[in-house]
Amino acid sequence: MKTSMKTRLLALACAGLVLATATAPAALAATGTSSAARSGTSDLTRSEASDRAWSEASTGTMIADGRGSVVSAELLARLSAAQVEATLTKGGFPVPPRPQGADLYAVVYRTVAVDGTPTTASGVVALPARSRRELWTVSYEHGTLATKAYAGSGSDGDGRAVPLMFAAAGFAGIAPDYLGLGTGPGFHPYMDAATEASASADLLRAAGELAGRQGRTLSGDVLVTGFSQGGHAAMALSKALRDDPAYRLRGVAPIAGPYHVRRAEMPALLKGRLDPHSATYYLAYWTVSMNRLHHLYDSPSEVFRDPGVERLFDGQHSFDEIAAGLPASPRDLVTDAYLKRMAQPSGSLLKAMVVNDATCAGWRPGVPVRLYAGRGDKDVAIANSRLCLEELKASGVKATLTDVGNVDHMTSPFRALPRILDWFTGLRGT
After folding, report:
1. Is the pTM higher than 0.85?
2. What is the pLDDT of residue 430?
């Protein structure tokens, strides 16, 4: 693969990492001490947590025994207000007025796997230095990642920077790694709405437990945002929270999400409207993930021209390795027969699309939703957001779509996040 093509692929495929490559290595390192030495509560372990199978595993509720309980929590950094401001500024993220310092934690917590059995997942929790009476929580859902180690709990990126941004504004900021990323076992079920929701919802509980151990209280008021895959995850989580009595969903602001693979993203891909390099990556990752969940093929040779593509998405390959193993376009990636199946899906392929393309449909009114997307996006077509808006309005939801301009995929969050920060701050009040 030519260097320019490889660079383009990496920039687009690793949205979560590239968003914040400039964020905070120096500032985080400035805390300098080991986690055990920083605080008596910086390394928290539940030594006798229940290992029972948890009921209601697939319902999206968070009341089953053990779900959302903290397994461990490591203090990654304790940042002053000046360090937070420097970190956000260097990464290009908005700085709240009068930012405050924050503590940043990597958390491992109990949740459920795709089949409803007990598992663990990891994520990031950022708590502000100055305690409000009860903290509102902002959940940030990160973009596409295929390498476990690059998730927020293990690497600097938007999974750390965005929670930090919201903590600087006085919120509890959280960012789930999702299943199978970070320290989570097994494969990541990419674009699986059900587990995006369950893993994210259970981190809300874990954050509440962690905050309590630090003498803080989370109010149960929740705001949700996310970028790219995280836009899809944000809608999945928000839809689940609408039926959870433990939380009050106050506002939702997803950015450039692939809400409609069947009706928006695949037609754009098949008509050549997407960048071929990023489209190749997303199609390969989605196909491998959906096969694990819905059995799309018996052998990778049935869909991939190079069957070895499948092994690239085991969570262990680096971006360089994945880029080197992928061709330059979707037509070089998959067989003609599979492209025809994607154009006219049926059976398990259709099911995979239908079940995961429903995050914007069937909402109950009562929570405002502000969608953000860019008309120049060649990774995630803005048609995704337009279809989502139609479905939300059909359900009576007060929803809007802001076109952030004729910009590429990676620019859209930097256009949207300042507006989202202002909106969320206004919803909470001072």
Report:
1. yes
2. 63
pLDDT at 10 over 60: no
Alpha-carbon distance of 202 to 190, in angstroms, equals 18
Q: Can you tell me the distance from the alpha carbon of 74 to that of 81, in angstroms, rounded to the nearest whole number? A: 20
- Angle value at C-alpha 259, between 205 and 232, nearest 5 degrees: 20
Q: Got the DSSP string for 356-368? A: HS-TTSSPPSSS-
Give the pLDDT score at 112: 97
Q: What is the pLDDT of residues 353-397, one digit of tens each?
A: 999 999 999 999 999 999 999 999 999 999 999 999 999 999 999
**DSSP character for 227?**
E
- Residue 308: DSSP 8-state: G
CA gap 139, 397 in Å, rounded: 20
- How many CB atoms lie under 10 A from the CB of residue 219? 17
Q: How many CB atoms lie within 10 A of CB 407?
A: 16
User: Cα torsion at 63, 65, 69, 72 (round to 10°)?
Assistant: -160
| Helices (H), ranges, 14-144 | 15-18, 25-29, 35-38, 81-91
DSSP state of 261: I
Residues in the chain: 430
Q: Which domains does the chain have, with CATH numbers?
A: 10-259+362-428 (3.40.50.1820), 261-355 (1.10.260.160)
* Longest CA span, the chain: 59
Distance of alpha carbon 231 from alpha carbon 389, whole angstroms? 13
CB 197 within 8 A of CB 239: yes
